[in-house]
Amino acid sequence: MTTLVIMGTFEVAPGKRDQVVPLLMAHRARCLKDEPGTLQFEVVLPRDEESKLLIYEVYENDEAFEVHRNGASIAQWREATAGLGVKVVATKCTPVE
Questions:
Q1: I need a labelling partner for 68 at 20 to 30 A (CA). Which of 1, 26, 33, 97 fits?
Q2: Residue 1 has what DSSP assignment?
Q3: Mind listing the pLDDT tens digit for each residue in 36-57?
Q4: Nearest one of 75, 4, 66, 76 to 41, comparing CA atoms
Q5: Where are the domains positioned within the chain?
Q6: Any idea which fold 4-93 has?
Q7: DSSP per residue over 32-85, as a string?
């Protein structure tokens, strides 16, 4: 099975990034604690774009990502960020080894 990497860009409504970051970091902590197939989950803030966040996630395989995608933490994330104008664009990637 091939490791899966997710590269994601979050567009956030103007002035809402400071509200979204702690919610995303809580989601990150839950995923790393409760999802054995979630191997890495990094959050970075672009310095010149106040309305964006970027993520880099590594999953054991596609099945582990499906567990994540359909899990309790992402449902909690979606509920917590409803109304904050968060739009996500994610790209599934295969690491070059």
A1: 97
A2: -
A3: 999 999 999 999 999 999 999 9
A4: 4
A5: 4-93
A6: Alpha-Beta Plaits (3.30.70)
A7: HHH-TTEEEEEEE--SS-TTEEEEEEEESSHHHHHHHHTSHHHHHHHHHHTTS-
For the entire predicted model, the pTM comes to 0.93
Burial of 97 (0-12, 13-18, 19+ CB in 10 A): exposed
- State residue 6 phi and psi, 5-degree precision: -110, 125
> What is the structure's pLDDT at 37?
97
Mean pLDDT along residues 11-20:
94
Q: What is the rounded CA–CA span in Å between residue 53 and residue 67?
A: 23
Percentage of the chain modeled with pLDDT above 90: 97
Residue 86 burial (CB count, 10 A): 21
* Phi/psi of residue 46, nearest 5 degrees: -60, 135
Cα(21)–Cα(53) distance, rounded to whole angstroms? 8
Report the Cα 77 to chain-centroid distance in Å.
Answer: 9
